[in-house]
């Protein structure tokens, strides 16, 4: 009883010390390059910061924006903890923006996580002159441990054991992304401890990163906090992308409605540690235990070797219809049983239908382990799509990139041919960009990130992968969006494999979608990486305008954009939802789009050049010429004129 009383007195004094450090916890971290305090950057930051307290509330607790022109352009991100009070959230952001401007008067980069407990909210304010949206940032770190430790007694090991269990529970809950919530990476836990007061723990990541990045960030954050600080009585640690705090009392108002977690059972300590006991009560010596372990290990090893041999034989030759895929690259493809696929999709229930493709239907499925999948079921028994099926299995087994959809496996039983992919929750790009309501969600920052992601996926296909792949059917419906709106190029059924030194080929089998096919491919069957560049250019213009290419009857979007370009009115092409975005930034991408749809394939840029232009404000971009046209003649008052004559006429006006 006396020990418990002394522990309570000790923890109470520690609590007072923690309360005294709260103002230190909210210190701003200033870093990066220095600048003149009276510069345009300061003015842009001040102007942008003034809008953030209201914007974060009206946008659900998370908001990112930018203002100004490079190199004085300011990017900002603000975030409140889930369950925030609107007034408290706005006040927290306003306070932190003021602290940042005062403390980081001459520094470009800054961030501050935290909040005052009496305001019952925590928030983040971050700024830079470089776009950081969607990037995991683990530097610089901030750490504020409580200055005192939990009583350094024999109970410390028990405390740390239960503390680690609480960390794991909180981290697991925080990284289960809830796509329905803007503040998706968040967890607050109150845990009972066996011989100590309850522990309160909070973890949060910025919602623009992936769940895997969030898990890494929080894990590194806890590791950084624990370094040289075992058994402290509370504290916090943060990186620009995540925040971790724990204490012996509820803080930031995060624990009003939290579920309480009971203490784990205290481990029983054996008095005799030299023996174990079997079911009959006979003591077993360690020599016998070691012998049992050796035998079991040997048995498991034999089973493991057998499994490897079976899969090795299966992996060396995968039969798909009449084709054979050699696994010379030592790749392994999982073959699904039809029963597993039927169970996952509820017998291909119409309620699970995600969409209809050119060669079959796509369904959502859930495996017995809870993992979600997308299942493409080719049209049964028709033979249609056989080539596409074999092509996709052959290629995607050897392609791995964050901007390419991942093929998990396939199934062939009877007349069923099925492909199993990772499930991408936000469907395809066309469901957003061509929908008047959903398009509102595609801010310019999100659209730019999608455009850049598609470009990076194509650079990988054309230049960086072990294979050289031409997609041949690039369009918005073949771009899938994950939970964080990152793009993934999909549908490789019509893709063409090139030799590494091959630059161009010809085919009599024209595959793709009219309006997105390059003229030399559509008319002469000539295939090259520049065929995909053309398709990318059309899709880029669709992303900017919010209009389908075929909405411009007779001429197409590329021609419409070119007319506005030579008239000096390219802003007419821009989607009305992007009116608040600096038009010169979007016009640069219109210029890139027009370069990609040049009629002469040699005049089109490579995708690696596109990536360079997207990431630079200073590298000059060539002036585009007339694009390839979707009609051959343009009717004038005097009769007919060729399209080149029309644009020569327009250019001279």
How many individual β-strands?
29
* Rg, Cα atoms, Å: 30 Å
Strand content: 15-25%
Please state the second-level CATH architecture of the largest domain.
2-Layer Sandwich
Question: Helical segment tally?
Answer: 17
Major β-sheet annotation: 6 strands, mixed
The helix fraction, in percent, is: 25-40%
Which fold name is given in CATH as the topology of the largest domain? Killer Toxin P4, Chain A
Q: Any idea what the CATH superfamily of the largest domain is called?
A: Gnk2 domain, C-X8-C-X2-C motif
Distance between the termini: 96 Å
User: How do the strands of the widest beta sheet line up side by side?
Assistant: 6-9-10-8-7-11
The best one-word shape is: globular
Helix/sheet category: alpha+beta
List the topology elements.
Blueprint lengths: L1 H19 L1 H4 L3 E6 L5 H19 L3 E6 L6 E7 L5 H18 L3 E8 L8 E6 L13 E4 L10 H19 L11 E6 L7 E7 L5 H16 L8 E5 L2 E6 L12 E2 L13 E3 L5 E3 H31 E4 L2 E4 L7 E2 L2 H7 L8 E5 L2 E7 L5 E7 L7 H11 L10 E7 L2 E7 L7 H4 L10 H21 L3 E3 L8 E3 L5 E3 L6 E3 L5 E3 L12 H6 L1 E3 H17 L11 H10 L16 H14 L10 H8 L18 E4 L2 E4 H10 L1
Parallel strand pairs: 7-11, 16-20
Antiparallel strand pairs: 1-4, 2-3, 3-5, 4-5, 6-9, 7-8, 8-10, 9-10, 12-13, 14-15, 17-18, 18-19, 19-21, 20-21, 22-25, 23-24, 26-27, 28-29
């Amino acid at each position: 009883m006396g020990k418990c009383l002394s522990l309570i007195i000790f923890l109470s004094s520690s609590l007072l010390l923690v309360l005294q450090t709260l103002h230190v916890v909210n210190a701003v971290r200033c870093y990066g390059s220095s600048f003149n305090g009276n510069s345009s950057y300061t003015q842009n930051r001040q102007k942008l910061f003034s809008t953030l307290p209201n914007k974060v509330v009206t946008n659900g607790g998370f908001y990112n924006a930018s203002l100004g022109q490079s190199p004085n352009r300011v990017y900002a991100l603000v975030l409140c903890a889930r369950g925030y009070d609107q007034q408290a959230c706005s006040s927290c952001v306003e306070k932190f923006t003021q602290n940042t401007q005062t403390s980081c008067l001459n520094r470009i980069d800054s961030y501050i996580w935290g909040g005052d407990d009496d305001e019952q909210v925590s928030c983040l304010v971050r700024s830079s002159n470089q776009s950081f949206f969607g990037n995991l940032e683990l530097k610089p770190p901030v750490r504020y441990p409580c200055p005192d430790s939990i009583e350094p007694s024999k109970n410390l090991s028990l405390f740390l054991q239960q503390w680690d269990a609480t960390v794991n529970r909180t981290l697991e809950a925080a990284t289960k992304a809830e796509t329905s919530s803007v503040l998706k990476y968040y967890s607050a836990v109150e845990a009972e401890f066996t011989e100590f007061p309850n522990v309160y723990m909070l973890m949060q990541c910025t919602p623009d990163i992936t769940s895997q990045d969030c898990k890494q960030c929080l894990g590194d954050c806890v590791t950084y906090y624990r370094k040289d600080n075992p058994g402290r009585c509370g504290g916090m640690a943060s990186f620009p992308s995540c925040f971790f705090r724990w204490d012996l009392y509820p803080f930031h108002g995060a624990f009003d409605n939290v579920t309480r977690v009971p203490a784990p059972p205290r481990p029983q300590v054996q008095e005799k540690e030299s023996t174990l006991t079997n079911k009959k009560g006979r003591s077993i010596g360690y020599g016998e235990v070691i012998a049992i372990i050796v035998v079991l290990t040997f048995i498991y090893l034999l089973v493991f070797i057998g499994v490897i041999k079976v899969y090795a034989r299966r992996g060396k030759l995968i039969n798909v219809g009449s084709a054979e895929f050699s696994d010379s690259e030592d790749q392994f493809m999982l073959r699904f049983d039809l029963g597993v696929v039927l169970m996952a999709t509820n017998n291909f229930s119409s309620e699970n239908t995600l969409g209809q493709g050119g060669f079959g239907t796509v369904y959502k499925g859930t495996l017995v382990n809870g993992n979600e999948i997308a299942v493409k079921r080719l049209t049964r028994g028709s033979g249609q799509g056989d080539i596409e099926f074999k092509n996709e299995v052959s290629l995607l087994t050897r392609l791995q990139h964050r901007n390419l959809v991942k093929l998990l496996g396939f199934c062939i039983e009877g007349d069923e041919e099925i492909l199993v992919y990772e499930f991408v929750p936000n469907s395809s790009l066309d469901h957003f960009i061509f929908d008047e309501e959903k398009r509102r969600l595609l801010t310019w920052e999100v659209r730019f990130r999608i455009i850049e992601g598609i470009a990076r996926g194509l650079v990988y296909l054309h230049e960086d992968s072990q294979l050289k792949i031409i997609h041949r059917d690039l369009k918005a419906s073949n771009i899938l969006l994950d939970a964080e709106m990152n793009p993934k190029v999909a549908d490789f059924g019509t893709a063409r494999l090139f030799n590494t030194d091959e630059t161009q080929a010809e085919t009599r089998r024209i595959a793709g979608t009219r309006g997105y096919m390059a003229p030399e491919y559509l008319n002469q069957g000539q295939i090259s990486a520049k065929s995909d560049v053309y398709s990318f250019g059309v899709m880029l213009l669709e992303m900017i305008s919010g209009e389908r290419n075929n909405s411009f009857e007779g001429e197409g979007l590329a021609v419409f954009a070119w007319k506005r370009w030579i008239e000096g009115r390219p802003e007419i092409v821009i989607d009305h939802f992007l009116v608040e975005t600096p038009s010169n930034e979007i016009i640069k991408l219109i210029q890139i789009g027009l370069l990609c749809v040049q009629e002469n394939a040699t005049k089109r840029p490579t995708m690696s050049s596109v990536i360079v232009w997207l990431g630079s404000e200073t590298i000059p971009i060539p002036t585009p010429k007339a694009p390839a046209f979707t009609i051959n003649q343009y009717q004038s008052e005097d009769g007919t004129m060729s399209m080149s004559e029309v644009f020569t006429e327009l250019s001279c006006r």
